[in-house]
Write a structure and sequence with these properties.
elongated; mainly alpha
């Protein structure tokens, strides 16, 4: 776990997250997720791009669900000392993977719509999904990123404030709940609800 002196700039905070996750880990995880989406798009193979998009989306949803509904409650029950020992190692890695999956899934979805020619005559579902995706990007790289980074910075300070860490974590988990709901909205818009709603 990296150490840090506060206050710091946004750039220093970003680098702190990378160092906390591990530079090699960050390069491999982000490179794999984003590289896979980019290669699938550049291949021109719509089937490959479709499965990469669906695979990244499933991984993204699974990671979000696991962290919000399995890991977070388990850490809460384990007590503050256990949480304080695990969070500084777990959170930066989840941030790197989660944010890469956010970009990779949304980017491959936009690319897939392009490969299928949907942008020539975009439907209300496509515009709706794009709007929801934009909100998800704003959340992922706005309040969620900020809260998780603040929590890591607090834990790395000489005398961490346990109450503040708990408050930051609770707020981050609420944003994760919003992200989960938005993921389900996009899945509904792009699949099942097409047969139920007027086009």
């Amino acid at each position: 776990m990296a150490t840090i002196d506060t206050p710091i700039t946004h750039r220093e905070r970003a680098w702190f997250v990378v160092e906390s996750a591990g530079t090699r880990y960050t390069i491999l995880a982000a490179g794999l997720v984003l590289g896979l989406a980019l290669l699938a798009f550049l291949s021109g193979n719509r089937t490959l791009l479709f499965y990469v998009h669906v695979g990244l989306g499933a991984f993204w949803f699974g990671l979000d669900f696991f962290f919000r509904y399995v890991m977070a409650p388990a850490l809460g029950e384990a007590g503050p000392e256990t949480a304080a020992a695990i969070i500084p190692h777990l959170t930066p890695k989840i941030m790197v993977v989660g944010e890469s999956l956010t970009l990779g899934t949304i980017g491959s979805g936009i690319g897939l719509a392009y490969r299928f020619g949907y942008w020539a005559d975009p439907s209300v579902y496509l515009w709706g999904a794009l709007g929801v995706a934009a909100v998800m990007l704003l959340i992922a790289f706005g309040p969620l990123h900020s809260l998780q980074t603040e929590m890591l910075v607090e834990l790395a300070s000489p005398e961490p404030n346990g109450d503040r860490v708990g408050q930051l974590n609770e707020r981050a988990l609420r944003w994760l709940l919003v992200m989960t709901g938005l993921m389900l909205v996009i899945v509904g818009m792009m699949t099942g609800l097409r047969g139920l709603l007027v086009p």
